[in-house]
Design brief:
This protein is of the alpha/beta class. The protein folds into four domains: 3-149, Alpha-D-Glucose-1,6-Bisphosphate, subunit A, domain 3 (Alpha-D-Glucose-1,6-Bisphosphate, Chain A, domain 3, 3-Layer(aba) Sandwich); 169-247, Alpha-D-Glucose-1,6-Bisphosphate, Chain A, domain 3 (3-Layer(aba) Sandwich), CATH 3.40.120; 256-363, Alpha-D-Glucose-1,6-Bisphosphate, subunit A, domain 3 (Alpha-D-Glucose-1,6-Bisphosphate, Chain A, domain 3, 3-Layer(aba) Sandwich), CATH 3.40.120; 367-444, TATA-Binding Protein. 35% of the residues lie in helices and 23% in strands. The protein is built from 14 helices and 22 strands. The strands form four sheets. Strands 1, 2, 3, 4, 5, 6 and 7 form a seven-stranded mixed beta sheet that branches. The chain starts with 10 loop residues before the first strand and ends with a helix. 52% of the residues are buried. The mean pLDDT is 96.
């Protein structure tokens, strides 16, 4: 068994070499046993390997004693919704999110909370590993309930906005041949806006571009279409539709960092003093916005399981990551792709401003670059070396919440290692272009 498929906040590998039906069967069995689950929901994305992995997961769960409800081909955030809304004590989604077509995996929930390496994934890994030769046979016919959750889900996400205020917008939406198309179409039936669909046909081969909008190369068609159609906004979803990336009316790619700040500002207008959780890679724009709006800023380790858990622990109203995952208290503290799309549309209509105008106040002040990855000989050696280099410099602030964050008055960076490969990920921000590039070269010289 390749233990690297058990990651910090989900299980993911290449089908059928590192993840397959036998392994998923055992993952389901020990997932149910570990948490003594009685009633779970299970969904899946559109990948060609998802039906057989779904069937194996259901068999393992039933053998372990759980009642299973099949909630169909859905987005991951629909599974999160279903597990909370219908009071299931567990939930699973067969998906590899934004990864290429040869991948697949499982995202798991217990009692409405995503399971992470801190809350059970590694325990499931160890149980599977210890019992690879355990004779587990399922000879019964699969019996599940089925439930169509679309109507309840759409009603739920629409409840976050005033639909009467969303009108007159022309919106291009690129779902990358993933699962989101039919969901977006249903939502737009309730909006007085024009939807311009891009790559809405589900296709497990992702023929137009990878369903990963975090890589800006995969958003080029959307950016072009926004300009061609003179649209007000562009939205890109990843393969399992829990990630929402914005493109402004000029075709400008928008980071999840700045969208977290913009959405936090809007939410805090109506919720003075509320807590906002965000990840530590880039923080100044979000921190400054939260402070200016009278809110409370809280940092969390990166990853949907960690952010959701921190929000629940702190009773925070909203959370955001630079990866364009956005979380909501009233969404069972889970991330969701459709709610930020709707909130962004409502914000544009309410302020009667262009998205580029809202973004420019951040783009002009906070200098950042996309996350930069470096292959290294040892992740921990690099983190230790770089911390030691900066720790005695006057004015430094150091945090080790997630990797290591080094902060000075006019620049800062976060450096963290991959969970599965010898890669260091760097995010840096500054208040000056000159300082940014000077310090980027300095930090890069320390990475090897």
């Amino acid at each position: 068994m390749d233990e690297s498929i058990f990651k910090a906040y989900d299980i993911r590998g290449i089908y059928p070499t590192t993840i397959n039906e036998n392994l998923v069967f055992r993952i389901a069995y020990f997932y149910v046993k570990q948490f003594n689950l009685k009633n779970i929901c299970v969904g899946r994305d559109i990948r060609s390997s998802s039906p057989s992995l779904f069937e194996s997961f259901v068999k393992g769960a039933i053998l372990a004693g759980a009642k299973v409800t099949d909630i169909g081909i859905i987005s991951t955030d629909m599974m999160y919704f279903a597990s909370g809304f219908y009071d299931f004590d567990g939930g699973a989604q067969i998906t590899a999110s934004h990864n290429p077509k040869e991948y697949n995996g499982v995202k798991l929930v217990k009692n409405g909370e995503p399971i992470s390496s801190d809350t059970g994934i590694f325990q499931i890994r160890d149980l599977v590993k210890e019992n690879l030769n355990l004779d587990l046979n399922f000879n019964d016919k699969i019996v599940t309930d089925t439930k169509n959750i679309l109507a309840d889900y759409v009603k739920h996400v629409l409840s976050f906005v005033d639909t009467d205020k969303i009108k007159g917008l022309k919106v291009v939406v690129d779902v990358g041949n993933g699962v989101a198309g039919y969901i977006v179409e249903e939502i737009f039936k309730y909006l007085d806006c024009s939807l311009i669909p891009l790559y809405f046909d589900p296709d497990e081969n992702f023929p137009n571009h990878p369903a990963n909008p975090m890589d800006e190369n995969n958003v080029k068609d959307l950016e072009k279409k926004v300009i061609e159609e003179n649209a007000n906004l562009g939205i890109a979803f990843d393969g399992d539709a829990d990630r929402c990336v914005f493109v402004d009316e000029l075709g400008g790619y928008t980071s999840g960092y700045f969208m977290t700040a913009i959405l936090a500002r809007n939410i805090l207008r109506e919720n003075k003093g509320a807590k906002i959780v965000h990840s530590p890679q880039l923080i100044w724009a979000v921190d400054d916005t939260i402070r200016d709006m009278g809110g409370i800023s809280i940092l969390s380790k990166t990853g949907h399981s960690f952010v959701a858990s921190k929000m629940k622990e702190e009773d925070a109203i909203f959370g955001g990551e630079i990866s364009s995952h956005f979380y909501f208290k009233k969404n069972y503290y889970s991330d969701n792709g459709m709610i930020p799309m709707l909130m962004g549309m409502e914000l544009l209509c309410g302020e009667n401003k262009k998205l580029s105008t809202l973004l420019n106040s951040y783009r002009n002040k906070y200098i950042t670059s996309p996350e930069i990855n470096y292959t290294v000989s040892s992740t921990q050696d690099n983190l230790d070396r770089i911390e030691n280099y900066y720790k005695n410099i006057s004015g430094v602030k150091i945090s080790k919440l997630d990797g290591v964050s080094i902060e000075f008055s006019d620049w800062r960076f976060n450096l963290r290692g991959s969970n599965t490969e010898p890669v260091i990920r760097l995010n840096m921000e500054s208040l000056s272009q000159d300082v940014f590039y000077e310090k980027l070269k300095e930090v890069e010289s320390l990475i090897y």
